[in-house]
Amino acid sequence: MFGDDRTVVAARVDGALWDLDRPVPAGAVVEPVPLSSPDGLSILRHSTAHVLAQAVQTVNPEARLGIGPPITDGFYYDFDVDQPFTPEDLKRLAKEMERIQRAGQRFERRVVTEDEARTLFADEPYKLELIGLKGGGDADSGSGESVEVGGGELTVYANVDRSTGEVVWQDLCRGPHVPNTGVIRNGWALTRVAAAYWRGSEQNAQLQRIYGTAWPSKDELREYQQRLEEAAKRDHRKLGAELDLFSFPDEIGSGLAVFHPRGGIVRQEMENYSRRRHTEGGYSFVNSPHITKANLFQTSGHLQWFAEGMFPPMRLDEEVDAVGEVVKPGQDYYLKPMNCPFHNLIFRARGRSYRELPLRLFEFGSVYRYEKSGTLQGLTRVRGLTQDDAHLYCTPEQLKPELTRTLNFVLDLLRDYGLDDFYLELSTRDDGPKFMGPDELWETATATLAEVAEESGLRLEPDPGGAAFYGPKISVQARDAIGRTWQLSTIQIDFNQPERFGLEYTGPDGTKHRPIMIHRALFGSIERFFAVLLEHYAGAFPVWLSPVQVVGIPVAEEYAEYLGGVVDRLRREGVRADLDVSDDRMQKKIRTHTTDKVPFLLIAGENDRAAGAVSFRFRDGTTRNGVPVDEAVALITRAITSRIQVSTEADLEPAGGAGAAAVGAV
Prior knowledge:
Helix 1 packs across helix 2 (87-103), helix 6 crosses helix 14 (526-536) and helix 11 (399-416) packs across helix 12 (439-455). Residues 137-145 and 655-666 have low confidence and may be disordered. The chain has three domains: 35-228, 2-Layer Sandwich (Threonyl-tRNA Synthetase, Chain A, domain 2); 258-290 and 336-536, Bira Bifunctional Protein, Domain 2 (BirA Bifunctional Protein, domain 2); 550-664, 3-Layer(aba) Sandwich (Rossmann fold), CATH 3.40.50.800. The strands form nine sheets. It has an eight-stranded mixed β-sheet. Strands 4, 5, 6, 10 and 11 form a five-stranded antiparallel β-sheet that branches. The protein has a five-stranded mixed β-sheet with strand order 30-29-31-32-33, sandwiched between helices. It is globular and about 90 Å long. 33% of the residues lie in helices and 26% in strands. By secondary structure, it is α+β, with helices and mostly antiparallel strands. 36% of the residues are buried.
């Protein structure tokens, strides 16, 4: 289709992904899909998953096939086998995959009827179940089987020997695939094994899942593996334990964290700065309880659309008489999964005028969500979390400027925490049943969000079907220091909850009007944002967020009193400063506090005391000696108030301006 261009692995025909060898209808719009593109990488990874499955059944013909979709940076395939895979099994499978890859087997697509598919896969019970789902119209139920069957025709992909034309292996699959296994080259690796329930349900059989990764070249594979190594070093769970920041005690329960004193300081600084910025931004602070009667979430729609994510109800308030007869029936209470219904009640507590709008309500609200145990992951996926949650109420005329203002506020605040590489996602509804409200309101909300996103100048990516049940949203995707993307802030339009709660304001014409509601979470949750920052900075927080900002280390005991005076002065300036007067040798003290990632170590000996100075030691081991105490205090406080990252001596150089030069010149 594209000649000898080997960088192209598939085609997009009238918007749909096709194999390169499929005949193209006359007049169709055809675009190349390069291997290096997101679609090209997904096709490469799914094709590699097929090679893995072929290798497994070559080595173990009794293995039964599950599904094998591409995922972020790789793929997996599920198998029903008698014994779990071992590391030695993976080595053997990798050798067989190399043989298949070198053979250059062609991927050939064939359309089959349901009866033909059942005959071909008569010995594959999981494939037969997927074929049944296809027949029942439930193929795309979100369990991953969309890589096998979909809303159209049933297709089978055969791996064909290029010399003999013999079919050596085949799988039920929607495709497309790369032209042949030779395209896969040597940029892949098998990474790990895990147990997984068929179609994600604990009611089903437990299978063995093999994970892998695939890239266009070996160099790109190595780069990815290096990123994984760096990510492992930055894992917030590892750093949280090493730096004594937080823990998950078994006595409390899964997904419920406690923050230790040092972690509590970081969290406090995060929240305090956010509160200050929200005050400047015209937000009003509110608070709401952790539990409520069920009817509140019935009104909001959460019990209809979000019940699976809520903790079970608590039956309370029942009263019985002396003989055990119920004189007052009990009612269900729920731990709150969201703050928005409470904020709606605050808005509705009294009459509102258009002059009060936009009204911006803000809360650090603790919420509780019943995440399945298999999905919990440190602070990034928890059951108890604190949202920095805002709900804004405005008139239709105020909607677009308020959305623009809110997006700018979000981006500016994220930059203050050290994140500055963003793009946006626009999450919209699909034709599924999980969305409420009339189509015309969804269309208006979606179009307005799209305009605001495009005017921001940031790249905008579509996210079909990713909207909340009550309205579309923009989400801010931020890249961290090693290039990983995190979804952080969300901004959502909601025409539905104001209607369901009967929210009104009096307009300039004296009549009642319905406000538009904007949901806005800036961090997403304090816990998750804490984890993102911890990994972004690899535990070496900027000075303003560091649990301990300065540690004084006297060269000998006789200089402790002098250095203690410097530490006391820093404390009076609001600096979190400690003096290490332990019995450890000076070099051990330096190692200890360097490992704890303290930004500034102040060392003092005879020359420093005589000159009224201190010597700086920075995180990377560089030093600056003989800094007068007044100057040292000014340097440290400037680093805190400017929220800069200080790891080396050079980081303390003035950023510019007369004031900075006066403070920073040493």
